[in-house]
């Protein structure tokens, strides 16, 4: 019996050896795409410097994959999506999107940046408890106490405050569509611009 077992084991070993260069090439292609193309806006590891573009290092892979597909399918419709991401994702395959999502989710998120203490405190109160008078539920319901909840809700911890405010405004005005837009429209409708700034300042400081 032993001689018969040697052949399949050898074949498996040879197959793995042949696949290894191909797998490494795919990983290299993904890193090149991220560090040479996507880096223009998001930085080489997803830690964007400009608040015009979100930080995506450490973002949930499931969320990133869903958003990239929504950009490609043009179901996420907002001005920035149309100006940048529709074109950038138009030629990406499902496999490439998945690999990019895994790459960015594996990057270490940059630490948050401190804001005005009083504004941060007001933002924390809204994030944790909502705005009952305006029927705005607590952000923790979907995003979790630490602002890094799983699955299809994005990680918000340490995100650019300016970017977060812009997204809330887009949700409120119904200029951002697709995905969780209906939920966020209902929530942001009850928020003032000042309250949005406070929540964003709190999240950026985490």
What does this structure look like?
The protein is an all-alpha fold and 206 residues long. It contains 9 helices and no strands. The chain has helices at 2-42, 61-73, 79-89, 94-105, 117-129, 140-143, 161-172, 181-188, 193-205. Helix 5 (117-129) packs across helix 9 and helix 7 packs across helix 8 (181-188). The chain starts with a helix and ends with a helix. Mean pLDDT is 88; it is low at 1-20.
Helix content class: 55-70%
Distance between the termini: 62 Å
The overall average pLDDT, rounded, is: 88
SS elements, strand count: 0
The parts where pLDDT drops under 50 for at least 5 residues are 1-20
Described by the principal axes of the CA atoms, the overall outline is globular
Q: H/E order of the elements?
A: HHHHHHHHH
Task: Sketch the major β-sheet.
Answer: none
- Rounded to an integer in angstroms, the radius of gyration calculated over CA atoms is 21 Å
Structural class: mainly alpha
Count of helix runs: 9
- β-strand percent reads under 5%
Concise synopsis of the structure shown:
This protein is an all-alpha fold and 206 residues long. Helix content is 62%, strand content 0%. The longest helix is centred in the first third of the chain and has 41 residues, at 2-42.
